[in-house]
Amino acid sequence: MKAARMLETALKDPFAQIAQFALDPHLCVPDEVLLQTSTLLIDTLAVAAGATRLEVAEIARDFASDFHAAGRPEHSAFMLFDGRRVSVPGAAWALATQIDNLDAHDGFNPTKGHIGCALVPALFAFAEQRPDLSGRQALAVLAMGYELAARAGIALHATACDYHTSGAWNALGVAAVGAHLRGLGPDALRHAMGIAEYHGPRSQMMREIETPTMLHDGSGMGALVGANAVLLAERGFTGAPAITAEGPEVAHIWADLGQDWTVMRNYIKPYPICRWAHGALEALRQVVRDHGIDAGDVKAMQVRTFAQSAQLFAGMPETTSQAQYSLGFALATLLVHGRIGPEHITGEGLRDAQVAALLGRITITEEPRHSARFPAGRWSDVTLTLADGRKISSGDVNARGGPEAPLEILEIRDKITAIAGHTLPEARISALWGMREGLLQDELKFADLARIVTPKCDD
């Protein structure tokens, strides 16, 4: 009965419900949701730190510095882990591009993509003009943005004939975060979301899978478009209503806004590899753990997975982008090294002779039963043929890190060090991790976290 009433309300005035939720200065967010949002925030910042020395990250930050300057100080923001100031949209774009290209950030299965990699950069860029913002308030705004972006993504996938990258829809979440922090009203928010949807990069995900590049999942442009949309709407620029938010055919997707906190079902990745590979990686991890197998024992590996996963990059990658959108290479790396870190998908890791030798023993095929479970899950199974003739099968295994198989909190803490440890000293990593619970304290300002993540990594 309650669900029916919520749907009726959404159909009568779809945007009124969205605006009330997005702009409420006293938005009530449960503590468990705030803590989950804080965990995702810290995880995302660790990925940002770990990505600072990637070639694409340096290109993005230098480009923003050269071409996204702010005309006035109040229109500028720091680029995190860099220390230079650029325009608010430039700062959001550069950091989102940086995070997007170290594929270790969180995601939400029904959207087939990622939210935090665009929203976190926007949050920091817009929050600079809000020194009064508390940690709890910032987390509430971020949680709100996750909820709007998640529904925008689900709505787009339900109504578009092609599979678009995350930037196509997480731009709407960025617009909502910016509108809230700048104190805009419902009309301006409506135009901002309309601008963000209209100009959002309707980039085709499978093109990037076929030929992996620095374009990655489009979230850099999603952050840029969403930030631009807010600032344009604030000045009176008008935009068509966002049909993924206001169309009657998607009203049911938005009807439970503020009731069902989808952010609780976001996953945290254990590896900096495309999520589509994680079901097979977890299957291999379990087999190796349970049977004490090492790379030298394996004569052949048969992988059955869902269609999209089977289309990941084949062969030995030459670039970090190819490595992160790989399946065979990721499996070989995990078997050889027992883990996958930034060092395995960059530099000498791309020329690892042991991994290259093992890669030739791996066969990957689509399995219809796994394809039928996508995008709700990322299922795969592996069968190892050992040198002694034995065959060991994993059975069907889903990716780990989401609500169905969450990482332990200590595993997340270890991941922070594994991802950011080559760029940040342990003291700074510990300070960052300490903010996970600290942000929930009323007296702590969001600017206290910004002071940890603004200076260059080697400062």
From TrEMBL:
Residues 17-246 form the MmgE/PrpD N-terminal domain. Pfam families: MmgE_PrpD_C, MmgE_PrpD_N. GO terms for molecular function: lyase activity. Residues 271-427 form the MmgE/PrpD C-terminal domain. Transmembrane segments: none annotated. InterPro entries: MmgE/PrpD_sf, MmgE/PrpD_sf_1, MmgE/PrpD_sf_2, MmgE_PrpD, MmgE_PrpD_C, MmgE_PrpD_N. It comes from the Bacteria. PANTHER family: 2-METHYLCITRATE DEHYDRATASE, 2-METHYLCITRATE DEHYDRATASE-RELATED. Belongs to the PrpD family. This is 2-methylcitrate dehydratase PrpD. It comes from Roseovarius marisflavi.
